[in-house]
Amino acid sequence: MDLKKELNKEQYLAATHVEGPLLILAGAGSGKTRVITYRIAHLIRNCGVSPYNILAITFTNKAAREMAERASFLLGEENLYGIWINTFHAACGKILRRYADRIGFNSNFIIYDETEVQVVLKECLRRLNIDEKYLDPKAVRKYISKAKDEMISWKDFTKSHDTYNNHLFRMVSEVYKMYQETLLANNAMDFDDMILMTIKLFKENPDVLDYYQEKFKFIMVDEYQDTNMAQYEFVRLLASKYKNLCVVGDDDQSIYGFRGADIRNILEFENEYHDCKVIKLEQNYRSTQNILDAANRIIKNNTERRHKRLWTEQGHGEPITRYEAEDQNDEALYIVSAIQDGVRKGMKYSDFTILYRINALSQTIEKALTRFGIPYRVYGGLKFFDRKEIKDIVCYLRVLDNPLDDVALRRIINVPKRGIGEVSYNNAYDIALREDTNVLNVFLNAGNYPELSRTASKLSSFALKIMDIMMKKDTMAISEYVKYVIYESGMIEELKRENTDEAESRIENLMEFISVANEYESEVLESPDAENLNNLTSFLQNIALSTDMDKQEEVDADTVTLMTIHNSKGLEFPVVFVIAMEEGTFPSMRAEMPEEVEEERRLCYVAITRAKKKLYLTHSRLRLLYGRTNYRVPSRFLRELELKAEKEEDRSEKSTTFRTGAVRKGAFGRVVNSVGDVKALNQQTGKVDTKDFKVGDRVKHKKFGNGTIVKMEGSGDKTVVEIQFDSTGMKRLMLAYAKLSHI
DNA sequence: CGACTGGCCGAGTTA
DNA sequence: CGGCCAGTCG
C-alpha cells in the first residue's frame, strides 16, 4: 500500500491527516470513498490505531458495505476486526440495544416503518376523538417529523408553539405526546427516535457517553451534507472529547433537505471546529470534461455553496445530447433506439441507466422497454419489503420476538383469514389499556370478557397458536425458524388454496424471504463486526433498516437500470438518460422558494455527474401524467446548460426497428386526443378571443413578459389560461382580461 | 365479519 | 389514472 502513489496530492493529504478535525469537500466522482478507506488503512497500519477505536458512519447500508469491503481489500478482513462501519441508524441501534433499559426500553425494541407510524397516529387520533378529516394524520406526521429532525420533543413542542391560542398546535402536541407514549408502551421507535434516543442516552448517562467517546477515538462521517440536527448532535457528542473527527461531503450534492438534512452542518463545520483542516477534492475520475463542464455550469447558479470546480485529465468525450420529444411515448422510443443502437455496437444493457425525478415517470419507459424486449430493472418502485406477504411474515416474527408488539399483532390477527376483525381487535385493545396488560394476553383469556364473547374461541386459539410457535424460537437457526413460521402460520396453505398467479408470486416472495434470512445468517458469521448477534431481534432490526437498494444483486445481470435521481446518488453509469426535464417536474412544481429551487438544481447536478461517458437529457412537448396530457415547458436547467435541442434527427437511419405503424399510432393516439379536447373547447365558446389562443401558443403579457400557454380551462368570458412565463414563472389569468398578444 | 364496489382525492424525493 | 376508504350487501 503506497499512499503517495495511489492517491493524488489532495487525496493523500486527506488520507494521512490523523489528529484533529478534518473537513473533506469531495466533489462528485473525486474518489471520496477511496480517501476514506485509505485513511482507515493508514490509521490502522501506519499509526497503530486499533480498529476497535474507529467509527465510520454512512447513510446507506450499501455505502457501509462498500466501505467495509474496500477497507478489507486493503488491510485484510482479520485486521479490521472490531471496527464499526455502519449507517447512523445501525450504529445507534447497536448502542441502544445494549443500553435500552437506561432509557426505559427493552433491548428487543422494534423500529416502526412509515406505514406503522401512520397506523399508530390514526389510533391516537381515534383515542383523542379527533376527526381525521379535521386533522390529517399525514399532516401530523409532518409536524412530528420536522420537530424530531430539529430535536424538539413533545414537551418542547408544547413550549415552542403557542398551544394555548393555536388550536392546531394544541392538537398536534397532544397527538405527539400520545404517539410517543404509545411507542414507548409498545417498546417501539420510529427512525428518528433511534438517533434521538441515543442522544438522550448519552446526555442522561455520562458514563455511557464517556465509554463511547473513549471507544471511538477516530470518527468518520460520510455524506456529511445530509446530516440533520439530531445526527449532527450525535456526532458532536461522540467527537467532543478527542475531536478526531473527519467529515466528508459535498454541499453541492445535498438533496435531502425534505427529510431534515441541514446544509449548514457542512457549510459551518469550520466555525464549529475552528482549528479544522479543509481539503477540497476537485479532480474527477469518473466523467468526461464535457459532462463536468455541464455540471459546473449548472451548479454555479446556486448561491449557497462552497466554490468548487470539477476537472479531469480525461478528454472531452462525447457531447451531451438534448432531445426534445413530441410526447412521452416518443421520448421512450428515442431512448429505446439509443439503447438498441449502443447494444448493436457492442455495449451491454447494463451500461444504460434512466434517471427521473418522480417514480411515476418510469411507467412509459417500462412499457417501451418491455415491448422491445430490453431487460430492465427498476430500483425503488414496488419494494420487496413493502409487499403485503413480506410485511405479514415480518409482523409474525415481530410478535414472536416481542408479544407486546400490538401494531404487528393487529396486522397478523387475520392473516390467514380466521374470522377476527377490526371490531374484536379494538375491543381487546381497549381492554388491554384498561387492565394495563397486552392484547395477546387479552386474547388468551378472551372467554372472560363479555364484549369478546362472539369471537372468544377464535381469539384464544389464535393466541395459543402464537404461543406454540414462540416455544420453538430458540431451538433453530433464523432461516429455519422463518421457514417454520411461514408454514406454521398457515399463510402458505391459504395462498395455495387461492391458486392464482398472484398467490403463486406471493409464495415465491416468501421463499425469497427465507433466502434473505439465509443471507443474514452468513453475513453475521463472516462479519468483522464483533457485536452482531445471531438472533431474531437483530435479524428484525436488520430488516427494518434494509431497503431494496441493499439487496445483493446478481452481478452478472445484464439489464438496463431505472431509478429516481435520489436513488442514484453515489452510483455511476457509462450512459445516463435524464428524462422529463420539464418545468413542474424538474424542477418540481412544489419547489417554490429559492432555496427549494437550489435543492432541485443540486439534484440536477447529481443526475448529470452520474454519467461517465455519455449523457442524454430528454424532455417532451406533451406529456401524459396523472391521467391528463399537458403541454410542457422545457426545464430552466436546460437553459442554464445552454444546450440546443437535438432536432427530430433521421432516426430511421439509426434504427429501423421502432418505426412501426403500431408504435407511431400509439404515440399519436394520445396527442390527438389532447389537442382534440382543446379544439372542442374552442368550438364550444364561439368567442373570438378564446379561439385566438390555444395551448402551446407563445404569448406576450404587458406585465409578465413572454410565456407559453400551458393549460386552458372554462369557456367564453370565463376562460382561464395557465401561462408559464419565461422569467416570472407560472400564472393563472382570466383570458378576457389578460390582454395577451401573440409573439 | 368480510368481500366487493363506487366514489373521491391526490399525484415527491427516503433511511 | 390509480389507490384507498367508506359504505353496503351477503
Task: Kindly summarize this structure in a few lines.
The chain is built from 33 helices and 21 strands. It has 743 residues and is of the alpha/beta class.
What does this structure look like?
The protein has 743 residues and is an alpha/beta fold. It is 48% helix and 14% strand. It has a six-stranded parallel sheet, sandwiched between helices. It has a six-stranded parallel sheet with strand order 9-14-13-10-12-11. Strands 20-19-18-17-21 form a five-stranded antiparallel sheet. Helix 3 packs across helix 4, helix 23 packs antiparallel against helix 25 and helix 24 packs antiparallel against helix 25. The structure holds a DNA duplex (15 and 10 nucleotides).
Anisotropy-based shape: globular
- The total strand number stands at 21
Q: Outline the low-pLDDT stretches.
A: 648-688
Distance between the termini: 66 Å
Q: Would you tell me the overall average pLDDT?
A: 84
Number of helices: 33
Strand portion, in percent? Answer: 5-15%
Order of strands side by side in the largest beta sheet?
A: 3-2-6-7-1-8
Helix content: 40-55%
Reported for the largest beta sheet, the result is: 6 strands, parallel
Q: What is the radius of gyration computed over CA atoms, rounded to a whole number of angstroms?
A: 29 Å
Structural class: alpha/beta
